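As promised in the previous annual report, we have extended the structural survey to additional targets. Below is the entry for N-formylglutamate amidohydrolase.
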Amino acid sequence: MFPVRSAAPHPDQSPFEIIDGDPACGLLLLCDHASNALPSAYGTLGLPPEQLQRHIAYDIGVRDLTLQLAAALGAPAVLTTYSRLLIDPNRGEDDPTLVMRLSDGAVVPGNADHDAAERAARISAYHRPYHETVAARIDASIAAGHPPAILSIHSYTPVWRGNPRPWHAGILWDSDPRFAVPLLETLRAEAGLVVGDNEPYDGALRNDCLYRHGTARGLAHALLEVRQDLIGDAEGVADWSARLVPHLKQMLAEQPELFQIRQYGSRCAA
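The corresponding C-alpha cell record, generated without further manual editing, is:
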C-alpha cells in the first residue's frame, strides 16, 4: 500500500497536493476542485463563509473519494488545495470563466474587478503549478514505460436551476473512447444506477484539464462526475469507492489499450 496524506496542506504552502503511488498501476487520478480553501491574502474573496461551503467553491465529496481510490488502487494522484473561485484549474488559461465574477447567483466581490495583471498573477501562482505538476507526473510515468490512463474526479449538484438531475453519476469524454466508454458501460450494468453519457456536462472543452493532459497527449482518459448528495458524507464516499474500485481494477488489468499513446482528435471547436 502506498502512503496517502489525509490532511490537505494549507494552500499558502502549495497550490497542489501529491499522493504517492505506483506508476506501474497504470492510473493517474486528478482532482481539480478538491478544496474550498483560499490563500490568506485573499480572505474569503468578500463572500460570507457559508458561500464557501457551497458547490460554487469546490466539488463536494471529491477529495475524500479521490483519496480512497488512490489508497485502494495504489495509484498516484494530484489534487488542488485552493477554491475554484480563486481560479479554475479545469479551464484553459484563455477561458473567460477562469476567474468567476458571478457563480450560481453569487457575486464574488474579490473577483469582480480583477484585471489582466491579477489574472496573470493567479495563473502563475496557482493554476500553472498544478498543471506543471500533473505534466511532470505523466512525463515520469511515460519515461518509466508506463503511460497512464487518467481519471479526473468531479461532482455536481442534484438540482440545477430548479431542475432535478436524474443521473447518479456521469462520464464525460471527448473523442477517445478507450477509458470512458467501458467505464460508462460497466456502471450502467448495475441495477438501478442511472449514469449519464456526457451528462450533466459535455466532456469536450478545449484546453480544459483533460484536453491538455489527455486529448493533446494521446493518453486514455475519462472524467467521472458523481452527484453531490451521494458523496456528501463519509458513508456515501465509502459506498462509491467500493463501487468503483473493482470496476477500475478489472479495466486496468484487462484493457492494455488504456496504456497506449494514441491520437483520437477532439470534438472541440477550433
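The radius of gyration is 18 Å. The chain has a mean pLDDT of 93. These points will be discussed at the next consortium meeting with the crystallography subgroup.
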